[in-house]
Amino acid sequence: MKIQAALLHAPGIPFSIETLDLEPPRAGEVLVKIAAAGVCHSDWHLMTGATAHALPVVPGHEGAGVVVAVGPEVSRVRIGDHVALNWAPSCGNCFYCLHDRPSLCATYIEPIWAGTMIDGTTRLSKGGVPVYHFSALACFADHAVVPEASCVPLDNSVPLTVAALIGCAVTTGVGAVLNTAHVTPGSSVAVYGAGGVGLSIIMGAKLAGASRIIAVDTHEAKGPMAQSFGATDFLMGGTDTVASIRKMTEGRGADFVFEAIGLPAVQEECLAAARPGGTIVLAGVAPMGSGTNLPGAIITRQEKTITGTYYGSANPARDFPLYASLYQHGQLDLDNLISRTYRLDQINEAYADMLSGEIARGLVVF
Ligand SMILES: [Zn+2]
Ligand SMILES: [Zn+2]
Q1: Is 75 a catalytic residue?
Q2: What global pTM score does this model have?
Q3: How far apart are CA 308 and CA 168, in angstroms?
Q4: How far apart are CA 277 and CA 250, in angstroms?
Q5: Pairing assessment for the beta strands 16-22 and 2-7 based on DSSP bridges
Q6: Among this protein's residues, is 151 annotated catalytic?
Q7: Which of 41, 45, 53, 133 is catalytic?
Q8: How far is the CA of 104 from the centre of ligand 2 (A)?
Q9: How much distance in Å is there from the Cα of 315 to the middle of ligand 2?
Q10: Distance between Cα 355 and ligand 1 center (Å)
């Protein structure tokens, strides 16, 4: 079939909207009519080259839609299902899946980073030339063929716009709090970066009962936004940020510090912002090949814990429906996360808005 998709030909060249060929789903694959796709920073990393990828590629990894066709051997989803898309599908059988770490699944990691389906080929092409899929989703397109394992059915009463956000920002942020860090009631939490993931961390911290939630960002507009999601304080990132965080936490530093940007210098600052015995959680994706200087002398003497969190240490089949239900019960304000919606042909404008820091999350709707 012919589809309309946003295509990235090379880093630095704006996305172009093009007509592509999409093959039908093969064994274990599903054709999804995309309803909404979030404007996430991880796609922008393809544009800057911070994430290297096979090209040309259709980005988009935060999506939701309706199943319109299924390939052979598909048993978990049916035509008509509303699905949120999981960008880290898991096999259920490898070492990591069996040790309850499905976001680290060894079966899918290679084909996904090669930009293909699990059989090593693409379903997307243009003029007979293969076009690669980002995260096996490529949902900056009106239709996508995805692995069955990427589809998490949600109740039809969950808006597909909200379901899309659950597919990345919400799961990454709320999961970092609940699954990775295990934030406890009464904790003090500092969050560096108030984009879609950082705001989701703030929501998660509120849900976990944190008593002080300090948001840090370099855009003034993020202050009221962070507070609307549960931040108790807002700091403009600067040279005195760590001192301010300590002042707000009886001189100690925060119990939990989250980095939701992916900058080595900020990751280093997070270590200083955490109290002795505290936990630093790295959620932002730093550029491939970058290095962060986290001094062992301090980590040992002050017993600080540093942990990465990838996709919120999620089990999407378990967590997506949980977050959808918390949304429906008013405990996760996901409507508030959607600042602006765009048509697919406004995708470059959507990214310009994301970089301006003026919006919480932008969403392409189809
Ligand atoms: Zn994302
Ligand atoms: Zn696995």
Answers
A1: no
A2: 0.95
A3: 16
A4: 15
A5: antiparallel
A6: no
A7: 45
A8: 7
A9: 11
A10: 14
143 carries an active-site annotation: no
Per-residue pLDDT of the chain (366 residues; tens, 9 = 90+): 999 999 999 999 999 999 999 999 999 999 999 999 999 988 999 999 888 999 999 999 999 999 999 999 999 999 999 999 999 999 999 999 999 999 999 999 899 999 999 999 999 999 999 999 999 999 999 999 999 999 999 999 999 999 999 999 999 999 999 999 999 999 999 999 999 999 999 999 999 999 999 999 999 999 999 999 999 999 999 999 999 999 999 999 999 999 999 999 999 999 999 999 999 999 998 888 899 999 999 999 999 999 999 999 999 999 999 999 999 999 999 999 999 999 999 999 999 999 998 888 999 999
Q: Which ligand ends up closest to the CA of 40? A: 1
Which residue among the candidates 41, 53, 61, 82 is catalytic per the annotation? 61
**Known catalytic residue at 168:** yes
